[in-house]
Recover the amino acids of this structure.
């Protein structure tokens, strides 16, 4: 244990409460511990693997009156979960002689048999033969139908040439010809169907076995995953133990996602509880190259993921005195109404206020408008701003105004301008096109996905620079969640996170993003209206 529990020699006072892991400013103790971990990574053999991109974490703990720290990395590093200096996994699924690896080998053997059957020469020959039969059948049947259409045209022409009608014998001959051709088409189809059925029967010998093996593989994988989750027995500060299956049965998905229990925070807390160490504070940081889809910057601190870790940590933090969620408390600010008539209102929302009611007690713009306009007939919120974003919103006070404004947003006739302060010195202007979709395991985070993401386009212009920051003017052509924040932060965008963006950059006093200009057509008068409200940081 001496190479895992590291002394922390410092005069820094510990915090009064443990870190709220999903929204925090790293404590000075954690910053000190992180420096030591980063020094270790830089000087060790794992640096080359860490440089590819990995999340690391530290947990400051107390034993008696002395402070120590633990370090961890998420998942595997260099294919291992047992590297020295770092805490071990909660459950070692990688042990070569363990149950997981043995059952995994059995699944691999099934996979191998499926591949062998899929590539069997006789099966491939039958597939080619079946494709040839079907192609020839289509060609022959289409050709015969063309012949039937020509014959019908000739019969129709013959009938039309005799205004007094054909003789009974002639009409009978034409009818028999039509009947023969129809019967012949049926015979051709039956012949093709017989040839197809014979080949498909021979092919089914292989495909039925493949289908049975695939079902067996699916069942074995499900059983192995369920067994694996049952082995992750997570402790909390009260000494209570629950496995992942039990923890996640209370969530919407009811089953743990892949990789649950292998992130930094659960590893660190589990080791501390198991060895009688009292958790003091915690932080996680990214090391190395950014992943293709997520926004991660080298050396930056990040909150724990919600999809995998929120249910687990909700259990594991029981018994600790934990900081309150700073996003849950009401900031007691109010929105500034800068225009209002019987149809609409234009509001300047402060940073930290929700657009619509959420899961917390924070007051929202919609709450304010409901109190102000209790007799309003229709939906009010036509568009939204992130809680952390300040600026202009237009509110509909009637059903007709709501529908009209909604149509304007859908047709992109509403023009919006944002001011943003970013953590880099930029010049010039440009256009960013990076498709986005929600990170289903870490909401509300968004990721870049060039295959399944929705189109997201932003134009930008640098206004001024000062002390390593730049004031930008941003124009979103689309309205995706976190679009401006991701487009600024992502390495394929500006690679310059908005100052104060704790999701995609680093925390500050606020998110320096402000909706400063809003232009739309009044839903009742048809007059084009423009509203502007500068942010206090636009003087840069």
């Amino acid at each position: 244990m001496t190479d895992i529990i590291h002394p922390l020699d410092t005069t820094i006072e510990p915090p009064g409460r443990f870190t709220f892991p999903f929204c925090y400013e790293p404590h000075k103790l954690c910053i000190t511990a992180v420096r030591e971990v980063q020094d270790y990574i830089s000087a060790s053999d794992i640096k080359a693997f860490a440089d590819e991109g990995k999340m690391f974490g530290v947990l400051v703990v107390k034993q008696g009156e002395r402070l120590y720290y633990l370090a961890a990395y998420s998942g595997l590093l260099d294919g291992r979960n047992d590297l020295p200096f770092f805490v071990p996994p909660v459950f070692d699924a990688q042990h070569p002689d363990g149950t997981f690896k043995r059952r995994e080998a059995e699944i691999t053997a099934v996979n191998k048999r499926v591949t062998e059957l899929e590539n069997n020469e006789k099966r491939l020959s039958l597939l080619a033969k079946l494709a040839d039969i079907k192609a020839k059948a289509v060609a022959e049947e289409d050709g015969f139908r063309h012949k039937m259409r020509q014959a019908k045209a000739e019969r129709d022409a013959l009938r039309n040439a005799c205004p007094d009608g054909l003789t009974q014998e002639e009409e009978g001959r034409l009818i028999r010809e039509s009947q023969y051709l129809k019967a012949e088409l049926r015979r051709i189809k039956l012949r093709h169907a017989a040839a197809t059925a014979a080949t498909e029967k021979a092919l089914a010998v292989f495909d039925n076995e493949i289908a049975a093996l695939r079902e067996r593989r699916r069942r074995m994988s499900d059983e192995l995953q369920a067994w694996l989750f049952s082995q992750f027995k997570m402790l909390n500060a009260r000494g209570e133990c629950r496995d992942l299956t039990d923890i996640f049965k209370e969530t919407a998905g009811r089953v743990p996602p892949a990789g649950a229990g292998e992130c930094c925070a659960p590893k660190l807390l589990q080791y501390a509880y198991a060895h009688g160490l009292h958790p003091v504070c915690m932080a996680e940081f990214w090391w190395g190259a950014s992943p293709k889809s997520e926004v991660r910057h080298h050396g930056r601190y990040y909150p724990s993921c919600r999809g995998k870790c929120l249910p687990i940590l909700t259990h594991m933090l029981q018994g600790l005195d934990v900081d309150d969620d700073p996003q849950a408390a009401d900031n007691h600010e109010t929105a500034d109404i800068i225009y209002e008539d019987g149809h609409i209102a234009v509001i300047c929302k402060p940073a930290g206020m929700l657009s619509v009611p959420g899961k917390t007690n924070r007051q929202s713009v919609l709450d304010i408008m409901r109190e102000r306009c209790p007799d309003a007939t229709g939906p009010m919120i036509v568009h939204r701003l992130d809680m952390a974003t300040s600026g202009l919103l237009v509110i509909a006070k009637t059903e007709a105004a709501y529908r009209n404004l909604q149509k304007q947003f859908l047709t992109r006739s509403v023009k919006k301008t944002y001011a943003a302060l970013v953590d880099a010195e930029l010049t010039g202007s440009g256009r960013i096109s990076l498709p986005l979709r929600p990170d289903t395991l870490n909401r509300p985070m968004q990721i870049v996905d060039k295959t399944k993401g929705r189109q997201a386009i932003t134009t930008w212009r640098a206004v001024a620079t000062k002390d390593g920051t730049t004031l930008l003017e941003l124009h979103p052509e689309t309205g995706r969640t976190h679009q401006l924040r991701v487009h600024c932060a992502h390495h394929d965008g500006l690679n310059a996170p908005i100052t104060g963006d704790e999701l995609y950059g680093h925390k500050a006093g606020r998110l320096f993003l402000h909706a400063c200009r809003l232009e739309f057509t009044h839903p009742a008068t048809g007059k084009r209206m423009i509203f502007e409200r500068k942010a206090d940081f636009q003087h840069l």
User: Anything to note?
Assistant: The chain has a mean pLDDT of 93.
